[in-house]
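Q: Structure for this?
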Amino acid sequence: MSLDTSKIADTNKDRPATAKKPNRAGAVAGWADDRLKLGTLTKVFARKVFPDHWSFMLGEIALWSFVVLLLTGTFLTLWFTPSMSESAYEGSYTQLRGVPMSDAYASTLHISFDVRGGLLMRQMHHWSAMLFIAAMFVHMMRTFVTGAFRKPRELNWVIGSVLLLLGILEGFAGYSLPDDLLSGTGLRIADGLVKATPVVGTYMSFFLFGGEFPGDVIIPRLYIIHVLLIPGLLLALIGAHMLLLVFHKHTQWAGPGRTEQNVVGYPMLPVYAAKAGGFFFMVFGVTALMGALLSINPIWKYGPYDPSKVTAGSQPDWYMGIAEGLLRIMPNWETHIWGITISWNVMIPGQIIPFVLFGMIIGWPFLEQWVTGDKREHHLLQRPRNAPTRTAFLAAMVTVYGLLWAAGGNDILATHFHWSLNSITYFMRVAIFVIPPIVFYVTRRWCIGLQRQDNDRLLHGYETGIIMRSAEGGYTERHLPISEASAYTLTARNRDEIHQIESDVDENGVAAPDTRVARIRAKLSRGMFADNVQKPTAEELEEARHHAEHEHELETGLDHPAAGHEFDDHQLRDAGDVPLRQH
Amino acid sequence: MTDNLPETTHDDHAGVAMQEPIPDPGLPAHEWRPTDVDPKAEKRAERQVAGLFVLAIVGAIGFIVSYIAFHVGDNPDTIGNLGASNVALGVCLAVTLLAMGAGMIQWARKLMADHEIVEMRHPASSSQEDREAAVSILQTGLEESGLGRRPLVRNTLLAAGGILGLLPVIMLRDLGPLPGDKLDHTIWDLDTWNAEMKAWWATQNRTLQRVVRDVVGTPIKVTDLEIGDLVNAEPEVLFQTNPDTQAPLVEGTDLLVDKSKAAVILHRMLPSDIVSSQTLNWSVDGIVCYSKICTHVGCPISLNERTTHHLLCPCHQSTFDLADSGRVLFGPAARALPQLELTVDEEGYLAARRDFTQPVGPSFWERG
Ligand code: HEM
Ligand code: FES
């Protein structure tokens, strides 16, 4: 409203814009529109609506940290030399002068000590990599727990999952580039994982490293993967992710006026663009602050890679923690038979379980859709409590992740708390099977409890904290009805249905071929939804309200239905009184 | 089909239309912000935003000044080991970016119009007519091409496409050499040596390769090691130079490859502590020699328990018993640590009698 729009608005009147004195911007826009139909595009996109909620910023953090990665990474490429040929170091860092090392390591030292701002960019690059992956994780959890993956957004769910996987791979490739002792150790472990592949493992290892580990080609190869191949894929998939987002329009939380048929929020131009643009600078700024003040991956302290050296307590970047934990707690099973070796101890934790876990996450939406048979589009988000089984599943998965992460740091736990390393490992082997189911059960009950609470609030109102003393001397707490808007919001959800099997046998009395599947589906449906609390029906609500009003009148002696705020200091404003929002 | 959006007023998925308990009250009325109605508040917000943008300019100038003022190389350890240049540049950059971001967000929140807009949704699917049209177009295409009627053409095309897809896979063949038996031998085996190494060896008049200290390459006598000592060691050839050219016999990538298989550890214990007969037979006065490369996924092992003769891998904590043929005591490693048969050479230095009798390092399929 403070913008003076008269100059722009001028061109919208009857006079054509070009008839006036040459307006540069207008002329450029006109030129472009003649060729690109930008006007129509702008009309469609510039006022696109984006609903507002803090949790919608998680994906944005991921997006912006990817942009920061592109910017800082491109800076690093100007000096980084992806080569494993060796020479003696002659740079500014005195402790390593004269030490033979690969060009990759030497150039990373050069970036850190001889390029102004180089260390800052390296640290920002590494911090934003962590932020990128962490934000994707949390964004994915938010999408999951609110049911935002439901039709029509399943494809975006899959794209997002692939993005997370690619991000982790990209991070591992980047971590390996500087060719320091830690990155070399990471590659050594990767080589061990590859070699454990049945039949072709040895060949894969030789092809990957161009011969025996470590060879002299792995860094140049990882480099092109890191700066071209995966970023290209990421860019394309992020583009697709965004296009689908715009096409489907954003999901929103239910509320008065916010339904399955509409989307309510701020327009792309100007508010959303300004907020999102500002948010980019915030993410960038926070990364800069981290790069300035928090040391990360000080490769000069580790020294160049030497396959006969290792530092105690070496840890990969946190997002590899799950694989690390799995490797550590796996029992040492290996089969030797007919002259071959099958390394279950490496294959299962390194190549099978991570992908099984990942598959369970990607697959859940499809499982849920199959069980419910729900073919409708869903644009209103579900509160986590209203999908207790799903929420509990996520909680259990997060627990698995956390346990494996802790297991990945078992040596650190052991030295830090003076626990026995062996006991921690044995504990984890059991805990990984026992604790997640407990978490699942508890979370599920908790969600259902919250659903009950919601229904109580709907049916009996909220607890005012006001204690009433009746004529007989008994005490009761006053309950008052919640506002119509909150009541509507609480009820704006679908009822769950339990899927039933029609008949066990077909018309001839023979077990129908697909009843087994149907029975599984019915069973899952019951397991997933039967315990959920459904919102009250109109009649139940009516009755409860009637009952409450009745009591109310009796107790307070009011001769009219309570407006709702007789006992607290919330005054109802009268309609002419313009309320001010606090910011 | 044209409208597959769920109904909000009727939950008719179950087939029973059920009245929603509470009707939608509709969007709440727009509330004005202080900046919308109070010109003073508006001016204040405007100054705030401009102030933030000025701060961004100050930060950028600070960045330029720091860029000129601080050198990187000579003071990497000042200011909490971060380097003065890094901290100054980073903080200035952060101030600029954060101030710009905060300014834009503040501007949007306080001064830009804040009316929420309602946009209607449309089903993601195309309309029924479009679908039918699409199907019929595809069918026409299929018929006009005759793909269904001419299986010969179709099948040969498929075969050609398949084999074309194979070509890139074949072209990956030269990514690396075939493994052969390379993983079965290490440079402890004199037969694996190249001509240059053999020429050097011919000048030595010895038959056994010494086990020498890592980094410095000095040979080791039995008396050099005390009970409980753990020493990192390598085959001596890795430290030798060509007598004519003075160039190292093994360097660069070859050195890394050889080290990643041939690195060993020496440990001295009381001969009476030794449990297995192999370990005893392959030891010299209680000194045993094992591969340093973990049989799990290949980390170099380094952590020693002096008294128990247990060796712990720092990567995933596999523990090996040096008194008992390198047996696995704990952890994810499945195979014993390969032992190197130790002896003393003509001059009394520790030497390897032969190569490891099994491949070292991580397991692989053909290992047996
Ligand atoms: C998109 C996700 C990306 C992730 C997760 C990522 C992650 C990483 C990590 C963890 C490192 C190690 C940094 C360190 O030394 O501490 C690294 C190094 C590097 N990255 Fe990236 N990166 C990404 C994108 C890019 C892009 C797009 C480029 C270039 C166009 C790039 C160029 C580099 C270079 C040249 C290095 C080696 C220099 C060095 O280590 O200092 N990165 N990356
Ligand atoms: S590499 Fe030694 S335990 Fe895994």
